[in-house]
Specification:
Elements: E1 16-20, H1 25-36, E2 40-45, H2 57-60, E3 67-71, H3 77-91, E4 96-99, H4 118-144, E5 150-155, H5 168-191, E6 197-203, H6 223-230, E7 241-243, E8 248-249, H7 252-258
Parallel strand pairs: 1-2, 1-4, 2-3, 4-5, 5-6, 6-7
Antiparallel strand pairs: 7-8
Helix pairs in contact: 3-4, 4-5
Length: 261
């Protein structure tokens, strides 16, 4: 896949995007780029952004797309439902949904599957798996109700293919997210054979985000891929997991059913 560094001016004019967990890192960069492309962007998160975060962005992009914040707890089904429905009611549609929110592993205190308290396990799965399901399916329902359709993009991690000692709980949560992407994509194809709605995922790699504050890589490095993916229309990729450079990654099951090595 060839990825360009920019995108066409007004590429997303008239479109509406919901970014869950977008007050910093990849989500913040996605909001900026989508607004620059003419889209209206709603950032939903549990906590409001700091004044140094998104506070000045709505004014900065008022002549292009706009960015606004709405509180939402992705682990609360009623909160997710009301947020998505309010976005559609207020802005007219939902073109795409990017879910970057995640609960990280604690690098300073590795915890294995044998040791993790059940309460911590439940919190991790509620955020990384159940929360993503709640947001994705509500977004898909909204997209299926319009002739334009749309796309959900999940953010996974290389941990979803790993078995790193001490990080088993996080690895499991991301492996489950990969399966969630593939399974939702199949359901989307069944509900919309023409490819009206689609579900894909990105493994973004390391960058300077809340999980990797010390990284020297800026989150904008991912934007060519994300903007390309969100710019795909009906019949575009579905059920794919992409690395940052645009390589389509395979799950073990893909090889099992295809017979490929």
């Amino acid at each position: 896949m060839r990825l360009t560094r920019g995108f066409k001016r007004r590429q997303f004019q008239g479109e509406v995007f919901l970014i869950v967990g977008g007050t910093s890192g990849y989500g913040r960069e996605a909001a900026i780029h989508l607004a620059q492309g003419g889209a209206d962007v709603v950032i939903a998160a549990r906590n409001a952004p700091s004044p140094k975060g998104l506070g000045s962005l709505p004014r900065a992009f008022s002549r292009q797309g706009r960015i606004e914040f709405r509180p939402c707890d992705l682990t609360d089904e009623s909160s997710v439902e009301s947020t998505v429905r309010a976005v559609v009611a207020d802005l007219g549609r939902l073109s795409g949904c990017v879910i970057t929110a995640a609960s990280p592993y604690r690098a300073e205190r590795p915890t294995g599957l044998m040791d993790i308290p059940t309460s911590e396990w439940n919190t991790l799965i509620a955020t990384n798996v159940t929360g993503s399901l709640l947001v994705a399916r509500e977004a898909l329902r909204a997209m299926l109700s319009t002739p334009q359709g749309g796309q959900v993009v999940l953010f996974t991690s290389r941990a979803g293919w790993a078995s790193t000692l001490g990080h088993g709980p996080y690895n499991v949560s991301k492996a489950a997210l990969n399966a969630l992407c593939a399974s939702l994509a199949n359901e989307a194809q069944y509900l919309s054979p023409a490819g009206l709605v689609r579900v894909n995922a990105i493994e973004p790699g390391e960058a300077r985000t809340g999980m990797n504050a010390g990284s020297g890589v800026h989150p904008r490095v991912l934007m060519p891929l994300l903007m390309w993916l969100l710019g795909q229309r009906t019949g575009g990729p579905n059920g794919q997991v992409y690395s940052r450079d645009g390589l389509a990654l395979s799950l073990a099951y893909d090889h099992l059913v295809s017979g490929n090595p």
